[in-house]
């Protein structure tokens, strides 16, 4: 049986309802990039909800962020539907062109940021890297074959740190043709000026040239390979989060909305594992953080899958919070009905967990059967 989701959709799940004529808790709808083409099992004739979901799904696909929203019927404001919107996008991939000293350090930082990593070098000893995991790729080939071995696109962040100017230039000519999440190239300001002039003379649009981060990294005075890797990673975060680059001590804090996780390779794999469990009718429940306050290891959008046989996939932060959610997940499997569970951590508990102060999590726990019903169009 085919049971796969297309890339670039939003999974909208009802996580709360007020004053509706029937219960749609846990029901899902799958929204395409235009927000219009829908499949799923939200069956109520609510045009106002369709319009709101279409708008929110376009925003979610644009910035790739998990979010929740409370939607009210304009004609009957007492009718409220709370939804979580989960962009199902390609994993964020960090493509490092060049496997030298900077790459070795950047791989380690990239893992902390949740990237799936690909390293390409034309030297076998440098392409094979002991820091790579089973989820990463190491490719030894000529840089001229780049397009043959890696698929570049909007989810790709590309760092060019080869061993020489000519290789850097060849890689840049190739990558700049594609849409990308981030593109940076190492080099002195003199080298960068020459590269920009060459690209312009070759007919590359100035807008595309301006999108390249060169010299690469934030200006933190980095000198060593490890420091340079940190400066590159900081710039990756700044681009992903649309953040400011000033020192925190020199800026006035700006109140932000709900902090959410950026989609990591591990979170995407957890969702794929939930889909596989639904397809195979394996008893399991998916826990998703929908709200966090205070000091919590993970934020809204983080996921963990619990199987009835005791296995687990992913993490929502570890410790006593996960233990509590695991117990509740077993109840959800038994009842085959979603549930919102609130985990409060006092200052004493937080200290034992290694956090600075207490915090709170709201976790939406749902049986994986909700995915089966949505994708196969089954009724409750």
TrEMBL record:
<feature type="domain" description="XdhC Rossmann">
    <location>
        <begin position="94"/>
        <end position="236"/>
    </location>
</feature>
<protein>
    <submittedName>
        <fullName>Xanthine and CO dehydrogenases maturation factor</fullName>
    </submittedName>
</protein>
<dbReference type="Pfam" id="PF13478">
    <property type="entry name" value="XdhC_C"/>
</dbReference>
<dbReference type="InterPro" id="IPR052698">
    <property type="entry name" value="MoCofactor_Util/Proc"/>
</dbReference>
<dbReference type="InterPro" id="IPR016185">
    <property type="entry name" value="PreATP-grasp_dom_sf"/>
</dbReference>
<feature type="domain" description="XdhC- CoxI">
    <location>
        <begin position="278"/>
        <end position="342"/>
    </location>
</feature>
<dbReference type="InterPro" id="IPR027051">
    <property type="entry name" value="XdhC_Rossmann_dom"/>
</dbReference>
<dbReference type="Pfam" id="PF02625">
    <property type="entry name" value="XdhC_CoxI"/>
</dbReference>
<dbReference type="InterPro" id="IPR003777">
    <property type="entry name" value="XdhC_CoxI"/>
</dbReference>
């Amino acid at each position: 049986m085919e049971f796969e989701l297309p890339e670039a959709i939003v999974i909208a799940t009802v996580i709360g309802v007020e004053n509706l004529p029937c219960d749609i808790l846990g029901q899902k709808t799958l929204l395409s990039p235009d927000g219009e083409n829908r499949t799923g099992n939200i069956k109520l004739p609510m045009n106002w909800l369709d319009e709101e979901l279409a708008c929110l799904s376009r925003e979610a696909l644009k910035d790739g962020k998990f979010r929740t929203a409370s939607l009210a019927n304009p004609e009957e404001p007492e009718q409220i539907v709370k939804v979580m919107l989960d962009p199902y996008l390609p994993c964020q991939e960090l493509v490092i062109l060049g496997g030298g000293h900077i790459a070795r350090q950047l791989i380690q930082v990239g893992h902390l940021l949740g990237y799936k990593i690909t390293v390409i070098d034309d030297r076998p000893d440098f392409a094979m890297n002991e820091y790579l995991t089973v989820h990463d790729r190491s490719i030894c080939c000529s840089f001229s074959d780049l397009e043959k071995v890696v698929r570049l696109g909007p989810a790709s962040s590309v760092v060019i740190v080869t061993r020489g100017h000519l290789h850097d230039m060849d890689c840049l000519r190739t990558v700049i043709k594609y849409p990308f999440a981030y593109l940076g190239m190492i080099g002195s300001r003199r080298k960068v000026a020459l590269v920009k002039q060459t690209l312009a003379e070759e007919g590359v649009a100035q807008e595309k040239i301006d999108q390249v981060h060169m010299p690469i990294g934030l200006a933190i005075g980095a000198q060593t390979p490890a420091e340079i890797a940190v400066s590159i990673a900081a710039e990756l975060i700044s681009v992903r989060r649309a953040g400011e680059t000033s020192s925190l001590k020199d800026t006035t804090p700006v109140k932000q909305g709900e902090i959410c996780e950026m989609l990591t390779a591990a979170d995407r794999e957890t969702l794929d594992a939930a889909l596989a469990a639904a397809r195979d009718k394996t008893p399991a429940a998916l826990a998703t953080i929908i709200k966090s306050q205070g000091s919590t290891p993970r934020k809204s959008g983080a996921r963990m899958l619990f199987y009835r046989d005791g296995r687990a996939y992913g993490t929502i932060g570890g410790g006593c919070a996960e233990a509590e959610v695991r117990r509740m997940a077993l109840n959800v499997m038994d009842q085959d009905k979603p549930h919102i569970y609130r985990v409060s951590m006092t200052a004493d508990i937080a200290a034992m967990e290694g956090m600075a102060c207490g915090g709170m999590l709201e976790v939406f726990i749902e049986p994986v059967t909700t995915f089966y019903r949505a994708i196969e169009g089954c009724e409750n």
